[in-house]
From TrEMBL:
<keyword id="KW-0961">Cell wall biogenesis/degradation</keyword>
<feature type="binding site">
    <location>
        <position position="104"/>
    </location>
    <ligand>
        <name>Zn(2+)</name>
    </ligand>
</feature>
<keyword id="KW-0482">Metalloprotease</keyword>
<keyword id="KW-0378">Hydrolase</keyword>
<comment type="similarity">
    <text>Belongs to the peptidase M15D family.</text>
</comment>
<comment type="function">
    <text>Catalyzes hydrolysis of the D-alanyl-D-alanine dipeptide.</text>
</comment>
<keyword id="KW-0224">Dipeptidase</keyword>
<dbReference type="Pfam" id="PF01427">
    <property type="entry name" value="Peptidase_M15"/>
</dbReference>
<dbReference type="InterPro" id="IPR009045">
    <property type="entry name" value="Zn_M74/Hedgehog-like"/>
</dbReference>
<protein>
    <recommendedName>
        <fullName>D-alanyl-D-alanine dipeptidase</fullName>
        <ecNumber>3.4.13.22</ecNumber>
    </recommendedName>
</protein>
<keyword id="KW-0479">Metal-binding</keyword>
<feature type="site" description="Transition state stabilizer">
    <location>
        <position position="70"/>
    </location>
</feature>
<dbReference type="GO" id="GO:0160237">
    <property type="term" value="F:D-Ala-D-Ala dipeptidase activity"/>
</dbReference>
<dbReference type="InterPro" id="IPR000755">
    <property type="entry name" value="A_A_dipeptidase"/>
</dbReference>
<feature type="active site" description="Proton donor/acceptor">
    <location>
        <position position="161"/>
    </location>
</feature>
<feature type="binding site">
    <location>
        <position position="97"/>
    </location>
    <ligand>
        <name>Zn(2+)</name>
    </ligand>
</feature>
<keyword id="KW-0862">Zinc</keyword>
């Protein structure tokens, strides 16, 4: 995977819903982390996202994005709040969000309702695992539907978070500092 520039993702250009929770107080820290709400992805991830959007649209669904590119400074804020490597990547390893290759999202039905995924976004609990035992059948169906969309588009999942997807091979890329994210800085 080669590095290129971060590209903006908007409802108008990508036909998605965007709710960047880290620019609000509706996240696990209870306070805004980003000072600006810009949804950005590295070019290969943006291309894969477009595939996922088309797949979801083919059966009447829309994607809703909670987070995409995350500056390393924001990753540090999250780690300082919850230093648990099950859910938050420590800065010495780095998050693929900080490489511009990871995205947190869900599916929205034709009526504008998020599908029931059993837990909310950012719920740092065992029940957030993709295939946690004891999930209601409809919840597992919804998670599997999202998983299928994202895998078909070229992303991979991580075990602990049903909402998190990233491009394979992302770890070989360098972290993208907030100063290198161009004019659309988040912090």
């Amino acid at each position: 995977m080669t590095r290129s520039s971060l590209l903006p993702i908007t409802p108008d250009t990508h036909h998605v819903q965007i709710d960047l929770v880290y620019a609000t107080d509706r996240n696990l820290t209870g306070k805004p982390i980003y000072t600006a709400a810009h949804c950005l992805l590295l070019e290969p991830a943006e291309t894969a996202l477009r595939k996922a959007i088309d797949i979801a649209r083919s059966f009447g669904m829309t994607l809703k994005i909670f987070d995409a590119y995350r500056p390393p400074q924001a990753q540090q804020v999250l780690w300082d709040f919850l230093p648990d490597p099950t859910f938050i990547a420590p800065l010495n390893r780095g998050s693929n969000h900080s490489r511009g290759t990871a995205i947190d999202l869900t599916l929205v039905d034709p009526n504008g309702n998020e599908l029931d995924m059993g837990t909310g976004f950012d719920a740092m609990v065992l029940e957030s695992e993709h295939f946690h035992p004891g999930l209601l059948e409809q919840v597992q169906h919804n998670r599997t539907l999202l998983l299928g969309v994202m895998l078909a588009a070229g992303f991979r999942h991580i075990k602990s978070e049903w909402w998190h997807y990233e491009l394979p091979g992302s770890r070989e890329l360098a972290l993208i500092g907030n100063d290198k994210s161009g004019p659309l800085r988040l912090m």
